[in-house]
Specification:
The chain is an alpha+beta fold and 145 residues long. It has 2 domains: 1-45, no CATH class; 51-144, TolA/TonB C-terminal domain (2-Layer Sandwich), CATH 3.30.2420. Helix content is 18%, strand content 26%. It has helices at 64-68, 99-112, 138-144; strands at 51-54, 73-81, 87-94, 114-116, 118-119, 125-126, 128-136. The strands form 3 sheets. The protein has a 3-stranded antiparallel beta sheet, covered by helices on one side. Strands 1-4 form a two-stranded antiparallel sheet. It has a two-stranded antiparallel ribbon with strand order 5-6.
Length: 145
């Protein structure tokens, strides 16, 4: 059995850093030879989250069919915030139990919500995913009607 040969090279060119990490010439978060900080994965990157700047769902948006049926509940949805701040690809990940509430949630989010998008460590906009719950409370709607 022979031990592996350690990698050779000068610190400045082999991924050296002021932060300890695993691997030859490691620095920051990562594994393997010359690993270091800010990569493009679940590492040390400094991505900023998206920030909603426009749009909301109001009690007055309650679907009439759902209200007439006495339906209420929470819809969990997942959607993309694109680099232009628009929303796309909304899907229901947990149903409220009422199709009208579920469909209305995604339709209104895609129509109304706008974001200042996520940005990478260099300030460039990047696509991101958001998961949120929308509560539909029938009592609030009945009080208004």
């Amino acid at each position: 059995i022979v031990a592996p040969v350690a990698g050779t090279g000068a610190d400045p060119s082999q991924g050296a850093s002021d932060r300890p990490g695993p691997g030859t010439g490691a620095g920051g978060i990562g594994n393997g030879r010359g690993s270091g900080g800010s990569g493009d994965g679940d590492g040390y990157g400094e991505e900023t989250p998206p920030r909603r700047i426009k749009g909301r769902i109001k009690d007055s948006d309650y679907p009439e069919a759902a209200a007439d049926a006495g339906a209420s509940g929470t819809v969990q949805v997942r959607y993309f915030v694109n680099v232009d701040g628009r929303v796309s690809g909304c899907v229901v990940t947990q149903s409220s139990g009422n199709a009208a509430l579920d469909e209305t949630t995604c339709r209104l989010i895609e129509q109304r919500y706008r974001y200042d998008p996520s940005r990478d460590a260099d300030g460039r906009p990047v696509r991101s995913i958001i998961v949120v719950n929308q509560d539909w409370v029938l009592e609030r709607v009945r009080d208004e009607r």
